[in-house]
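Before the break, one more example. Copy the sequence into your notebook; we will annotate it together after we see the structure.
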Amino acid sequence: MALSTLVLSLALASVASAATTTGFTAYKDSQCTVPLEIKEDGDSIPNNKLLADHSLADSSHASGHYYLDMEVVNATTSGSAGVGAANMYWKVPEPDSGCKFVLMREAKIGWGDMNPLPGYMVMRASREGCYYSAVSPGDTLITSYCCGSEECNKVNIEYNGNSQKRDLTEAHSIEVRETSTTKRSALSNAARAADVVNNKQDAARDIALKRDDAPKCTITKKTQGPFYSSGPQRSVTQPERCDTGPASCSHTVSVSTDASTAISNSRTETWTLTGGVSIGVDVGVNFIADFETHYGLSFSVANAWATETGTTVTTGTTNGTSQTVSQQVGTLGFLSFTPVYQCWRGEANCGKDANGKDIVITNNLFCQPTLGGDGKLSGTYNMVYISDF
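Here is what the structure looks like once it is written out:
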């Protein structure tokens, strides 16, 4: 065997070995010294370790390694984390430079259209350590990892603001809305887009003009829907460190969660209208409240879908709610929210371009935020435990 071939074979063997040994090892205590038995579908998991052998970019394995019908043996339980939920810790090795380990709980409704993650992220680690999570009986857990800024942006879901460390021993209220003297503690992309509209009226008028220039669209084909899909998971509080005892920190947060109508396209396309004006749509999810459209074409498509489905285009609905959050002692984490959307998929026709050809947008996804009976946004709140601010 040639030397170069031998070196390559050894390197591949090393990578394969690392992939099968790297993962999340279960422990009962915060120092990761007392092993904890974990089971999948009634069978003990070897070495009490969940392997992290598939990355978020691995579409052939749905972005992770799935462990079904989880059971934790002889763990302490906490009702605040859910009835029968097991309090446990995971020992995580040092990830490669620029990489992060991710632990998720499978979402019960669809993902992939608006949410790049297959489940609710519950833990994210960019360095070696012993990290907490709560696991309820029957949970499906998903292990994964990301490397590089582009891939890891999928899990960097917290608001990029100044972190505020607090003693959370006593319940306290965090006001979400920004005033002239306080910083906002809970933000979303839609909220920041709404601020742009409120504070920069000139920009809003420019958007209105662009919307008027856009062609009028109609929905010519519905291929799917209505169906429900998970929206993007986002932080609604800044990271908090819980440094006091005896068992957990409790704090009440008053959160205003925003969501808006969304349009998603399978590819980027542009057309030139008579007079030389260019219009287009971008690949990926485009939230209407973000005002990041080409001359308002996405607005036109959204309005066409609203007419077709009997709904109304929403450009930033805010719904306030109070959430009591329990955070484990010795942890760093934040509260997140994952909204539920109702979606349709189909094809839109937006007139003709300068050459007389039809402007057709295929495989177009239209999604509306769903509201509960109380008028609040439907979705899931959960804590996310992290290694660093």
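The two ends are 49 Å apart (CA to CA). The chain has two domains: 22-152, 173-386. Try to locate both features in your own notes.
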